[in-house]
Amino acid sequence: MKMALVKLKETSSTNTWCREHIRDVDMPVFVMTEAQTAGRGQRGNSWEAEAGKNLTFSIVWRPEGVSPAEQFAISEAVALGVKDYLGSRGIEARVKWPNDIYAGDRKICGILIEHSILGCRIDRSIIGVGVNVNQSVFVSDAPNPVSMTNISGKRYDLETEADEISEYISVRLDDATSENGRRVLHEDFMSGLWRGDGGWYPFRDVEEGRFFTGRIEGVAPTGHLAVRERDSDKIRSYAFKEVEFILG
Length: 248
Known about the structure:
This protein is 24% helix and 33% strand. By secondary structure, it is an alpha+beta fold. The strands form 2 sheets. It has a 7-stranded mixed β-sheet with strand order 1-2-3-7-6-5-4, with helices on both faces. Strands 11-10-9-8-12 form a 5-stranded antiparallel β-sheet, with no helix packed on it. A hairpin with a 5-residue loop joins strand 10 (225-229) and strand 11. The relative contact order is 0.15. The mean pLDDT is 94.
């Protein structure tokens, strides 16, 4: 999938810019900015990104062949595309459910996807991605950020990295448009899942406010996370924001 490129000097957030200019761009399009003044993360959190040092971009795409019920495949595709890209740079990364990217136990990338549903199809997806690249010091209260330069000690040319990451994500998004491709995506997603190694880890049930030890048993095609509780041996299914991972 070949994407048009839009470069911005500064914007509040690339997802917001895309929503406001959706009629002015041809899809698919890759919109990147040097500075993002109000970048958004999951749960309404802000995304810290020092100007001129990181990859902050959005992709606007019409996912032909992906039904609303299958939309989690898009999340899997984007997360795996970022993981593939980091792997090509010698950085071993895994996908923290549902779609953060971790290097070890530290967050190197956040993803925010917004779908527009029209009838029985996804009319468009706005895919926001922030990758920590050359930023070496983080001043926000985010608990565990890390950057590519923190890990490798190298400095990266952002335009070169933008070209590369767009290619990796494009390949994975193409996979999301076919049934067989979605099957492969899900298998790769499960094999690359952070804390998906069969070990027991601390969680918090958000609704009940209860902490427990659990083991990831799987992720449904809908994106629901299945966790087995150690004490009760029950498997519970959680949607996004219903359960939290506790960092050790």
